[in-house]
């Protein structure tokens, strides 16, 4: 008898806890980001292309196997934080027009620039299917 084991890429735990599964998928997404970090941080690529790379390379790694997840608010928050961190790294900083200082983008600005459904909104229809 074991507490947890990995089966077909999914981490199964005894009390069927989803925290370990989402944690491992976020770690995989982070590793995927770091493998393509040079492309995403390149100034030669347009922001639209880097967003497409994020959507086609990183997001599928994170949502792999999400059809079986029963998301709680805590897990949804973890996914939103992960996505906002990724988008913050892609869009970097912005020069403030009033003060002239560089600042990080707020999550509303990131969502406006991203123009795509968030990871949580990608997961919910997949679960319903």
Overview of the structural elements:
This protein has 129 residues and is mainly α. The chain has one domain (18-128). Helix content is 57%, strand content 11%. The chain has helices spanning 19-35, 37-40, 47-62, 73-91, 107-114, 119-128; strands at residues 4-7, 10-13, 93-95, 102-104. The strands form 2 sheets. Strands 1-2 form a two-stranded antiparallel sheet. The protein has a two-stranded antiparallel ribbon with strand order 3-4. A hairpin with a 6-residue loop joins strand 3 (93-95) and strand 4 (102-104). Helix 1 (19-35) runs parallel beside helix 4 (73-91), helix 3 packs antiparallel against helix 4 and helix 4 (73-91) crosses helix 5. The longest helix has 19 residues, at 73-91. The chain is elongated. The mean pLDDT is 82.
Task: Present the secondary structure layout.
Elements: E1 4-7, E2 10-13, H1 19-35, H2 37-40, H3 47-62, H4 73-91, E3 93-95, E4 102-104, H5 107-114, H6 119-128
Antiparallel strand pairs: 1-2, 3-4
Helix pairs in contact: 1-3, 1-4, 3-4, 4-5
List key phrases describing it.
single chain, 129 residues, mainly alpha, two-stranded antiparallel sheet, 57% helix
How confident is the prediction overall: mean pLDDT? 82
Radius of gyration from the alpha-carbon trace, in angstroms: 17 Å
Task: Give the overall form.
Answer: elongated
Record the strand order, biggest sheet. 1-2
